[in-house]
Structure prediction request, 127 residues.
Amino acid sequence: MDATTTVRDYYDSLRHGAPLDTFFADDRPEDDAIVKVGISERLVGSNAVQAGLRDQTLSTSDWVVESRALRVTERGDVAWFSDDVALAWTDEDGERREFDTRWSGTLERRDGDWRFVGMHVSAPSEV
Prediction:
């Protein structure tokens, strides 16, 4: 699988409420190298990223993820991407959230699979 497919599979998993934590590299718990920045959060370290993604999957539903400008570049075992994404979901209180977002990130090929080692999602306003 290539890095572009990994990004698209991540979007599909988000849409379908499937687990997302497996898309991120799993480093030593004390390693702060893995970072995921969301619209209103910053998660540092594998454990924090994976726990945050598991919580997000449990506390949200009805995702819309519409990629508008995905660009992915691979160089050896490293890849980076950017995208403009229409993003919407329903939170556990039933409130619908909608944003035009900008995504960027870095992936690393590990044991033949692409894993995110950094991701940044931003929007003009916070949740």
Q: What stands out?
A: The first helix runs from residue 3 to 16.
